[in-house]
Specification:
- By secondary structure, the protein is mainly beta.
- The protein has one domain: outer membrane lipoprotein receptor (LolB), chain A, CATH 2.50.20.
- The protein is built from three helices and 14 strands.
- A 14-stranded mixed β-sheet has the order 1-8-9-10-11-12-13-14-2-3-4-5-6-7.
- The longest helix has 10 residues.
- The termini are far apart.
- About 40% of the residues are buried.
């Protein structure tokens, strides 16, 4: 039986690789209503051979390279408050990632480390290191619309889901991702919308087990970095909280630069 997380706000497609959504799919409007209708297969002959799994894997891992380093700004907007943070991050492959807050000063030094399926958080004000237990994987990461589970599972999308092209044109390919029977994931299904020419995500829509839209992620500001197109900005919007969102914008991004192995050690986390 799949474990279904029912919190109001989930995800992370960013650092671990996080991250497109629909062209109709039998739904009204550009993104449709909350409940999707039947998913027709409308594929042009030229794109009939699209490898859905390979395309999604490319989209979800495009920021990684062999390693990555950079900074980004994360803005969290709710109906009650707004918070903006600047973070520095390092990653290696699909399984290792470290993110540290640079600003605001009161939070500087707070860090999250991911190694495989394990996560730790470091709080410099009290010099405390905490391993994130399974029971807290559904919690919001740093108050955003991303969860701890998003960080852990984002790099394994292509291992946990099966993929099917539901509609394809030269401008965009729509792919439905359905969890494998034994996959311990939080979503009923995902719908990716991808620019096939540049292999860029346009949007991703996340649905719960009842087929109700839970969250939409949109991508913008595409730039060519180290020979690949990358969206430098993404926006996470929970369907159940209109007007609230988390926006992530890269300020600096370097790929395939050497990263010392100690960067991803628990012992090094508070240094």
């Amino acid at each position: 039986m799949r474990r279904i997380h029912r919190h109001g706000s989930p995800l992370w497609g960013l650092l671990a690789g996080g991250l497109g959504t629909l062209l109709g799919l039998g739904i009204s409007g550009p993104f449709g209503s909350a409940r999707p209708g039947p998913l027709p297969v409308l594929v042009s002959p030229a794109l009939a051979a699209v490898n859905a799994q390979a395309l999604v894997r490319h989209v979800e891992t495009q920021y990684e390279g062999r390693s990555a380093h950079g900074t980004f700004q994360m803005k969290v907007v709710t109906t009650s408050w707004t918070r903006t943070m600047t973070l520095e991050f390092w990653s290696q492959g699909r399984d290792k990632m470290l993110a540290k807050i640079l600003a605001p000063m009161k939070d500087a030094g707070m860090a999250t480390l991911k190694v495989g399926d394990q996560m730790w958080e470091y709080f410099p004000n009290i010099d405390r290191l905490m391993r994130i237990p399974t029971s807290l994987m559904g919690e919001r990461w740093m108050g955003s619309d991303l969860t701890n589970d998003d960080l852990v599972k984002a790099s394994k999308i292509d291992q946990l889901y099966t993929f099917k092209v539901s509609k394809a044109t030269p401008a965009a390919v729509s792919i439905v991702a359905t969890p494998k029977p034994a996959a311990a994931v939080v979503w009923g299904h995902l719908v990716y919308l991808i620019d096939p020419a540049r292999e860029l995500p346009i949007a991703i829509r996340y649905y719960d087990e009842n087929g109700v839209l839970a969250r939409t992620v949109t991508f913008s500001d595409p730039r060519r970095i180290d020979g690949r197109w990358l969206p430098m900005k993404m926006r996470f919007e929970p369907a159940d909280r209109p007007g609230e969102f988390t926006e992530v914008a890269y300020r600096k991004l370097e790929l395939d630069r050497p990263v010392p192995a100690r960067t991803f050690s628990v012992e090094h986390l508070g240094k």
